[in-house]
Amino acid sequence: MTDPQALKQEILRLTREYSRQVHGAFRPASDSERAPWIDGSSIPYAGRVFTEAEVEAAVSSTLDFWLTLGMEGEAFQVELANFLGVRHSLLVNSGSSANLIAISTLTSPKLPDVSRIIPGDEVITVAAGFPTTVSPIVQIGAVPVFIDADPITGNARCDQLEAAYCQGKTKAVMMAHALGNPFDLATTLAFCRKYNLWLIEDNCDALGSSYSMPRILAESFGFNENSPGLDDGPDRVIRWTGTWGDISTQSFYPPHHLTMGEGGAVNIVRDQKLKVIAESFRDWGRDCWCPSGIDNTCNKRFAWQLGELPEGYDHKYTYSHLGFNLKPLDPQAAIARVQLRRLPDFIEARKHNWDILRRGLAKNDDVLEFALPTHATGWDSLDGFSWDDTGCRTNCSWFGFKISVKNSSPFTRTQLAQELDRNHIGNRMLFGGNLVRQPAFVQLRKDRPESLRVVGDLVNSDQIMNNTLFLGTYPGLTPSMLNTEINVISRFCSSK
Fold first, then answer.
1. CA pair distance 188, 199, nearest whole angstrom
2. Candidates 3.30.10.20, 3.40.50.2000, 3.40.50.410, 3.90.1150.10; CATH matching 343-495
3. Could you give the CA distance from residue 161 to residue 165 in angstroms, rounded to a whole number?
4. Looking at 88, 177, 256, 321, which residue is catalytic?
5. Is the pTM of this model over 0.70?
6. pLDDT digits over 347-382, tens only?
7. Which of 35, 180, 334, 447 is placed for a possible disulfide with 399 were both Cys, Cβ 3.0 to 4.6 Å?
């Protein structure tokens, strides 16, 4: 009889060889074994970037056949939390589910009444973005309050936060860092501290982006340490995005900074009690915190009396929340653990690719408008970014390269997108554009006008909806792919 471990090792050896032969086009662009890109073939805006290591990890975990979230998931949660420098990371099956769990956590009756979100309470968000940053607000019975976006950064106009506030109603701010560009965290934190509001950072597009501010300002918000691996000197505090608010969320869908196929995470920044609540909502709403396959962690499994249940009712089948089942699988977590080790290189590749595109397309700035990081006031090819006088800085792990067609241009955004499509260059809108114009939200206003509120005229969000698209910056883009993108866009601009 063949030794099972020897047999497994042979399977994994063949798995590695298979992956090397079949998946060469998915290796990082910097990998010497990367299959060359063929001129004229498609250039995706994003995609999976992996080697045989990820394939081996997935197969190895599958052969063990635990399947449901287990040891690999536990390890990845710890490793992700350690990378970010947060109290806990909780794996879920998507970034959208992460947003749902994050906002649901703040509805728990285990929280103080003064801060708990109940139906009819308001949550401030931004109009331009992805729908599942906002839809969970509606799904818990709260009211999204839309503020406008800045057409240059793509982020919320945080100067509108005060106008959006309603005493006795506003309970939280929930916004995304658009395309890897951090929103104005200093202004947002000051606002949230002033009114004792929750802050949820949708960090799905921004894993590896960072935000820094003068130490005296950071300490006024309760932060005095840098995130792990980040050092900006004694007079500043620099932290990853997703570590400034109360809760943050991640997506591990293939276009994102690392992938496990479908998957996401909820990060609990500091408050331990939020971890227990978030885990309950993820795991059917149960009150018990025992992992799958483990009983009686609290040593009082048959000693509780909760709700109107009889005393001693099994704690593993006691439910304190109206929860969900949103766990991923353990083989997915095995993939994510390998991807996390690549994350520093992936972050640098995204920054590098953004810089190549910005320099290559600079000659088209008479007809195209390009993004600036939050707090930047300009860019030039010699000195890079110039900054405002707030003392705050951003360092972007770009999810995409944002391009807006100026109103004075002789062509439209749609015409540019069509030209990119003709040349097989992947491009996307800034997600849902102005979400208030989307059919689902138009219908929501028609059915229940009180179900959302809008601050101002959202003219900038409309501008983003009409004029903006983005290209990819992901680590699978080779120099020849980036140069092709630059040449196609430049030829199109000069022909008009």
1. 8
2. 3.90.1150.10
3. 6
4. 256
5. yes
6. 999 999 999 999 999 999 999 999 999 999 999 999
7. 180
